[in-house]
Automatic annotation (TrEMBL):
Domain Peptidase M1 alanyl aminopeptidase C-terminal intervals: 556-884
Reaction catalysis annotation: Release of an N-terminal amino acid, Xaa-|-Yaa- from a peptide, amide or arylamide. Xaa is preferably Ala, but may be most amino acids including Pro (slow action). When a terminal hydrophobic residue is followed by a prolyl residue, the two may be released as an intact Xaa-Pro dipeptide
Protein name: Aminopeptidase N
This protein's UniProt keywords: Aminopeptidase, Hydrolase, Metal-binding, Metalloprotease, Protease, Zinc
GO biological process per UniProt: proteolysis
Organism field: Exilibacterium tricleocarpae
GO molecular function, one term: alanyl aminopeptidase activity
Family assignment from sequence similarity: Belongs to the peptidase M1 family.
PANTHER family: PUROMYCIN-SENSITIVE AMINOPEPTIDASE
Source taxonomy: Bacteria, Pseudomonadati, Pseudomonadota, Gammaproteobacteria, Cellvibrionales
Peptidase M1 alanyl aminopeptidase Ig-like fold domain residues: 444-552
Domain Peptidase M1 membrane alanine aminopeptidase: 226-439
Enzyme class, UniProt record, top EC level: hydrolase
C-alpha cells in the first residue's frame, strides 16, 4: 500500500456542482443511479482525464451527457474509474449495484439488523457510487429513495423532504434536497421501521426547528436525555459561539452496528446506540455524560466541520480538535468543570501520551498516511482540542471569540486548512502565532523540567523552566514550542499574591494568584518578588498545556497542594503524584522481594485520605476524584519498562491497606452518601454516587460477610445502573469463596434480566472482561461463544476483547504469550470482517517496546504473524508494519 502525502495536495481537476442520487433498496442488491453535473476546474489542464474513486461495487453503466460509454472508453480498477476524455462541462450518469447485507465493514451502505444505513466519513461514499470522494469537492445533493413500504416505512436523507409518492408492488419513494453544498463524506441515508421522539427548538432569530430522534420502538423510552442534551447544545452554541442551526429539521438516528460514536451528516446525524440511548435503569452516569457530550459534539460539527469543512484529511483536527474543545467546554458548563477537566486530562495523559510515545505517533496535522481511518486518533481529537484550548488561553476568551467569528464568517461554505484557522486567530488578535503552529506540525509530548529556588533574604522565588521533546518517528529533533504555563504560589495558609519581575514574559492576574508564563525558548527563568515565605509552586494550573512536567516536590509539598491550592486540577494532580510516589516505592520493593505482605502504607498518604474522608465541607466530586489512585494504565505510561506484575501487586496492596486502615471512614462515607431520592443525572447526584461507590469498592476489599452483604444488597435493590454495576464489579472481582458464589449468581441474574438490551449485555461482558482474578483469558474465550457476544458488532468487540486487552493487564500480558496469541487470532478474523475495528484492536500489541525482552519477542511474533496474513487490509497493514519498523 502507498502512503498519501500532505505535500502532494493538488486541487481537483473537476468540480461536481450537483449530485442527484437515486437508490432502489432491495434485499438481494441495491441499485444506485448517480447523475453528476461536472465542471472542469479552471486551473486544470485542458484535456485532464476524470479520475473517480470507487470500491467494492459493480459498475452497471456509465454515460456522458446521456450517451452510455463502451468499456474501451473508460478504465476500471479496484479503486478507480478513469474517463480519459470528457468535455469541460457535462452530465455523468453512473449506475452501480451494491450488496449492503454483505457489507460487514460498516462503511458505505450497510445493514444493521433490519435497517439500511450509511457511514461515509472518511472515504465510504466511494462504496456507493463512483465519485470525487474528497472533502474539497462540495456539491448540492438531491436524494431519492425507493423501497418496500411495509419493511422500510421511514426513508431519510440530508436536508429537507421535498417530495414523496407511492410505487408499484407495495413500494414507496421519498425525495430529499440539501440546499447546503457539502462533501460526500457528509452524505447519509437511512431506511427502516423506526419510531421517533419529536420536539422543537426556536432559534435566537425566531425560526422553529423540528428535532426528531429515530430509534427502534423498544428504545423510544430512552431518548429523553439525548433530546434535552441537543436542546441545551443548540442554545449553548448560540450563546457562546453565536452559531444558529440552519435547516428546518435536525434528525438523529440510533444504529446498533457502528464503528465509532456517531457521525455528523448534514441534518441527519447517525449515532451508535451507545451514544444516544439512556435511561437510569440501563445506563450508568458515565453513559449519561457520554450521550450529552456526543450529542453536543455532533451538533457543534454543523458549524465546525459542515459549514466550514476540511480541504483534505490532513486537516482532520481542524474540525475534530476544535469540536472536541467546544464539546468539552459545553460539558464543563453543564456539570462540574473541574471533574470534566480532570477526566479529560486523565485520558490524555494515559492514552494520548502513550500514543505519542509509540510507533503510531504523529503530529496533530500528520504529514502522511496509508489509511485515513487509522488517523481518527487521540492525537487528532484530544491533543488537537488541547491545542485549541492553549490558543484560547493565550488569546483570552474575548479575542478567541473574535477569532472564531472571523473564521466562520470568512470561510463559510469552504473547505479549508488548519493554517486558515490559525490565521483567523492571528488576524482577530493581532498576535503572531508562527511559533505556536509547531504544535500542529511536531509530534511528541514536550517535557518541562522545572526548578524552584527560594531566597528568603530577598523574598524572591525563582523558577527555571527547560523544555525538550523526545524524538518521534516523524522527526529526531524538535524546535522549541510556544507553551502557556499557568502557575501560582502556595504558602502555608493558601495561595500567595504574585508579582512577576518584568512584564513581557508573562501575563498576570495577580489578584487571583495565578499567571501564565509564556515559554518560547529551550530554557527560561522567571522571578517572583515580594514572596514573604517559602512557597510551593502550583504548576501547569488547569493543565494549561499538554506536556509532562517534572518538579522535585517533597511529599509534604504535595500534601500542601492537595489541601491548600485554589486550582482544582492541581489539587487533584498533587494527589496523583503522591499516589504515584507511594506506589513507586511498593513497585521497587516488589521488584526486590517478590512480595509485599508486611509492607505498611505511607502514613502521609493515609492521613491525606483520612482528611479527605473526614471533612464533610469538601466538594464530594473533588473528594471522589482525589481518592482514586493512579490507574495501572497511567502507572504503565509513566514507566520506562512496564513491570506488569509489580504494578498490579503494588496498587492492589495499597488499595487493601487503605481499605483496612480507613475502614470506619469508608463505612461512614458509604452510608452518608446513600440516597432515597429518585435518580438524577446532575453533577451533585453523580458526585454522591461516585463517592459512595468508591467507598463500596474499598469496603469490598475487606472480603468479610458485612461488605459482601452490602454489595449484594446494592446489586439487588438499586434503581439505577450506576449502582448496580458498581456492586456487580465488586462481586466479580472478589476472591473469597463466598464472593465467587455471589458473583456467579449475580452475573446469571443480570443476564437473565437484561438479555434483550444489547447495551446492558455489553456492560455485562465488559465487567467480566475486566475481572482481575486469575483465569481471565479462559473466561473471555468462553464469552466469545456466548449468545450475548457477536464479533460483527463493534460495541461487543470493544466491550469484551477491548476491555480485556486494554484494561486487564495482569490477565492479558500472561508470560506465556497466550493473551497476545488470543488477540492476534481475533484481529485476523476481524481483518476480513471489519478492517477499521481490526486495526483499532491492534493497539495493545503495538506497545511491545514498553515491555520486558521475553514479552517483546512474544508480542512481535504475533504482529509478524498478522503481517503475513493473505488479504491484509490497508488499515491493519499500516498499524502493524509501522509498529514493527
Ligand atoms: N466525524 C465522525 C467520524 C466518524 C468515523 C470515522 C471513520 C470511520 C467511521 C466513523 N464514524 C464516524 C465522528 C466525529 O468525530 O464526530
Ligand atoms: Zn467529531
Amino acid at each position: 500500500p502507498r502512503a498519501i502525502l500532505l505535500r502532494d495536495y493538488r486541487a481537483p481537476d473537476y468540480w461536481i456542482d450537483k449530485t442527484d442520487l437515486h437508490f432502489s433498496l432491495a434485499e438481494e442488491a441495491t441499485d444506485v443511479t448517480a447523475e453528476l453535473m461536472l465542471r472542469r476546474n479552471a486551473e486544470a489542464a485542458a484535456g485532464a482525464p476524470l479520475v473517480l474513486h470507487g470500491q467494492d461495487m459493480e459498475l452497471i453503466e456509465v454515460a456522458v451527457d446521456g450517451r452510455p460509454l463502451a468499456p474501451r472508453e473508460y478504465q476500471l480498477t479496484d479503486e478507480l474509474l478513469t474517463l480519459p476524455q470528457v468535455p469541460a462541462q457535462f452530465k455523468l450518469t453512473c449506475k452501480t449495484r451494491l450488496k449492503p447485507a454483505q457489507n460487514t465493514s460498516l462503511e458505505g451502505l450497510y445493514k444493521s439488523h433490519s435497517m439500511y444505513c450509511t457511514q461515509c466519513e472518511a472515504e465510504g461514499f466511494r462504496k456507493i457510487t463512483y465519485y470525487l470522494d474528497r472533502p474539497d469537492v462540495m456539491s448540492e445533493f438531491t436524494t431519492t429513495i425507493d423501497a418496500d413500504r411495509s419493511r422500510y416505512p421511514v426513508l431519510l436523507s440530508n436536508g429537507n423532504l421535498v417530495d414523496r409518492g407511492e410505487g408499484d408492488g407495495g413500494r414507496h419513494w421519498v425525495r430529499w434536497h440539501d440546499p447546503f453544498k457539502k462533501p460526500a463524506y457528509l452524505f447519509a441515508l437511512v431506511a427502516g421501521d423506526l419510531c421517533a421522539l419529536d420536539d422543537t427548538f426556536t432559534t435566537r432569530s425566531g425560526r422553529e426547528v423540528t428535532l426528531r430522534i429515530f430509534v427502534e420502538a423498544k428504545d423510544l423510552d430512552k431518548c429523553d436525555h439525548a433530546m434535552a442534551s441537543l436542546k441545551n447544545a443548540m442554545a449553548w452554541d448560540e450563546k457562546v459561539y453565536g452559531r444558529e442551526y440552519d435547516l428546518d429539521i435536525f434528525m438523529i438516528v440510533a444504529v446498533d452496528d457502528f464503528n465509532m460514536g456517531a457521525m455528523e451528516n448534514k441534518g441527519l446525524n447517525i449515532f451508535n446506540t451507545s451514544c444516544v440511548l439512556a435511561k437510569p435503569e440501563t445506563t450508568t452516569d458515565a453513559g449519561f455524560q457520554r450521550v450529552e457530550a456526543v450529542v453536543a459534539h455532533e451538533y457543534f460539527h454543523n458549524w465546525s466541520g459542515n459549514r466550514v469543512t476540511c480541504r483534505d484529511w490532513f486537516q482532520l483536527s481542524l474540525k475534530e480538535g476544535f469540536t472536541v474543545f467546544r464539546d468539552a467546554e459545553f460539558s464543563a458548563d453543564m456539570g462540574s468543570p473541574t471533574v470534566k477537566r480532570v477526566e479529560d486530562v486523565s485520558l490524555l495523559r494515559t492514552l494520548q501520551f502513550a500514543e505519542d510515545a509509540g510507533p503510531m505517533s504523529h503530529p496533530v496535522q500528520p504529514a502522511s498516511f496509508i489509511e485515513i481511518s487509522n488517523f481518527y486518533t487521540l492525537t487528532i481529537y484530544e491533543k488537537g482540542a488541547e491545542v485549541v484550548r492553549m490558543l484560547r488561553n493565550l488569546l483570552g476568551a474575548a479575542q478567541f471569540r473574535r477569532g472564531s467569528d472571523l473564521y466562520f464568517e470568512r470561510h463559510d461554505g469552504q473547505a479549508v486548512t488548519i493554517d486558515d484557522f490559525v490565521k483567523a486567530m492571528e488576524d482577530a488578535s493581532g498576535r503572531d502565532l508562527g511559533q505556536f503552529k509547531r504544535w500542529y506540525s511536531q509530534a511528541g509530548t514536550p517535557v518541562l523540567e522545572v526548578d524552584g529556588v527560594y531566597d528568603a533574604g530577598r523574598e524572591e522565588f525563582t523558577l527555571t523552566v527547560s523544555q525538550s521533546c523526545p524524538p518521534t518517528p516523524d522527526s529526531e529533533t524538535k524546535l522549541a514550542f510556544h507553551i502557556p504555563l499557568a502557575v501560582g504560589l502556595v504558602g502555608e495558609a493558601g495561595p500567595l499574591a504574585l508579582r512577576l519581575r518584568g512584564s513581557d514574559s508573562g501575563t498576570g492576574e495577580a489578584d487571583q494568584g495565578s499567571c501564565v508564563l509564556e515559554l518560547t525558548k529551550p530554557q527560561q527563568t522567571f522571578v517572583f518578588e515580594g514572596v514573604a515565605e517559602k512557597p510551593v509552586p502550583s504548576l501547569l494550573r488547569g493543565f494549561s498545556a499538554p506536556v509532562k512536567l517534572h518538579y522535585d516536590y517533597s511529599r509534604d509539598d504535595l500534601m500542601r497542594l492537595m489541601s491548600r491550592d485554589s486550582d482544582g486540577f492541581c489539587r487533584w494532580d498533587a494527589s496523583q503524584q503522591l499516589g504515584v510516589a507511594v506506589i513507586g516505592d511498593l513497585i521497587d520493593r516488589y521488584g526486590k522481594t517478590g512480595e509485599l505482605h508486611r509492607e505498611p502504607a505511607d502514613p502521609r498518604l493515609l492521613s491525606a485520605h483520612r482528611e479527605l474522608l473526614d471533612d464533610d465541607s469538601l466538594d464530594r466530586a473533588m473528594v471522589a476524584l482525589m481518592l482514586r489512585l493512579p490507574t495501572e494504565a497511567y502507572l504503565s505510561e509513566l514507566a520506562d519498562t512496564v513491570d506488569v506484575e509489580a504494578i498490579h501487586a503494588a496498587r492492589q496492596h495499597l488499595r487493601k491497606a487503605l481499605a483496612l486502615a480507613l475502614a470506619e471512614q469508608w463505612e461512614r462515607v458509604y452510608h452518608g452518601n446513600c440516597s432515597d431520592e429518585a435518580y438524577r443525572a446532575d453533577a451533585g447526584a453523580i458526585a454522591r454516587r461516585s463517592l459512595k461507590n468508591t467507598a463500596l469498592g474499598y469496603l469490598a476489599l475487606r472480603e468479610d460477610d458485612n461488605s459482601l452483604e452490602l454489595c449484594r444488597t446494592q446489586f439487588e435493590q438499586a434503581d439505577n445502573m450506576t449502582d448496580v454495576l458498581a456492586a456487580l464489579a465488586c462481586l466479580v472481582n472478589g476472591t473469597s469463596a463466598a464472593a465467587t458464589a455471589a458473583s456467579t449468581a449475580a452475573l446469571a441474574a443480570f443476564y437473565q434480566r437484561w438479555q434483550h438490551e444489547p447495551l446492558v449485555v455489553n456492560q455485562w461482558l465488559s465487567v467480566q472482561a475486566g475481572c482481575v482474578a486469575p483465569g481471565g483469558l479462559a473466561r473471555v474465550k468462553a464469552l466469545l461463544q456466548h449468545p450475548g457476544f457477536d464479533i460483527k458488532n463493534p460495541n461487543k468487540v470493544r466491550a469484551l476483547i477491548g476491555t480485556f486487552c486494554n484494561q486487564n493487564a495482569i490477565n492479558f500480558h500472561l508470560k506465556s504469550g497466550a493473551g497476545y496469541r488470543f488477540l492476534a487470532d481475533q484481529i485476523i478474523v476481524l481483518n476480513r470482517l471489519n478492517p477499521q475495528i481490526a486495526a483499532r484492536m491492534t493497539t495493545p500489541l503495538t506497545k511491545w517496546q514498553k515491555y520486558d525482552p521475553q514479552r517483546q519477542i512474544l508480542m512481535k511474533s504475533e504482529l509478524e504473524r498478522i503481517l503475513i496474513e493473505p488479504d491484509l487490509s490497508k488499515d491493519v497493514y499500516e498499524v502493524v508494519s509501522k509498529s514493527l519498523r
